[in-house]
Amino acid sequence: MVKSTKHFKFILWNWLYLIFTIFFKIYLIVAPYFIFTFILNENLTFFWVATTSFLGVRIFNIFLDFMNQAYFKGFLIFHKMKLAEKITNFLEKTTYKKYNENSSGFYYSEIENTIEKSVSQFYANLLSFLQTLSIILMTLGLFFI
Question: Does the entry feature the keyword Oxidoreductase, yes or no (predicted)?
Answer without folding.
Answer: no
